[in-house]
Amino acid sequence: MTRQAAGRGVPSLRAWSGVEWALAAALLVLAAAAWVVTSVVAMPDMRLGILAGPSPMGGDMAAMSVGLGLFVLTWVVMMAAMMLPAITPFTVGVRTLLPAGTRTRRVLVGLTLGYLAVWSALGLLAYAVVRGFDTVAESGSTTAVKTGAVVLLVAGGYQFTPLKRWCLVRCRSPLALVMRHGPQASRGPVGAFAVGMRHGGYCVGCCWGLMAVLLAAGVMSLVWMAVIAAAITIEKVLPRPELAGRLWGAGLLGAGAVLFLAPGLVAM
């Protein structure tokens, strides 16, 4: 970690206590378990999206017949797999900044569960979007790829907006969260859960474009999950997040423009 990281509330790795290393290890073990579970329960037809080529989700609707409940359950596990590594330094930073008497396990669990609850609720919207993509895929592979290209263009453009930067700053800074909401988080697990939801809201505002790309590329593809999770983690953890965000944005804009003008590159 750098001085910049320490300044926003994330302590240097060398300054982490044994308890903080244990907390980080626990979060990463949970993330690893979630990756394993996702690989087991992911529906095969949902590993491909509208950007993958000809009618990846069309034709056989059996994959979607599992319904909303199973999709959201799988989505919750996916969000744990993708987001827990990204929020590990943040959670350690929050623990460091909270008053000594309030750094309880229940408070930290409440913060984490509140954060994941927001991403889990987003699964309802994700299900609707995926069903819409499924309908688009039935219209033909060229239409599907062009629709996916529009998703890339929108997501890439969002990376350059002031709202993206505003959410990213708040999503990265434990210091800002504790200064604004520390007393509420310190009251107990209920208050911590509410504060965790606030943090999750900032993160959704920061990362929804990248998650839309995942829906178009293959919502349950382990490869694309890893790519998007890596991009999100880099923005949240490493220095110069705005530069990284602009690089992702430029890449998405370029890929979206190419696929929109030449869908035949993947459509058949």
From TrEMBL:
Keyword Transmembrane included in the entry's annotation = yes
Species name for this entry?
Saccharomonospora azurea NA-128
Transmembrane segment boundaries:
21-42, 62-87, 107-130, 142-160, 207-234, 246-267
Q: How far does the signal peptide extend, from start to end residue?
A: none
Please give the superkingdom of this protein's source. Answer: Bacteria
* UniProt-recorded name of the protein: Metal-binding integral membrane protein
Matches recorded under Pfam families: PpoB2 (PF09948)
Write down the InterPro entries for this protein, in alphabetical order.
PpoB2-like (IPR018688)
The record's keywords, sorted A to Z, are: Membrane, Transmembrane, Transmembrane helix
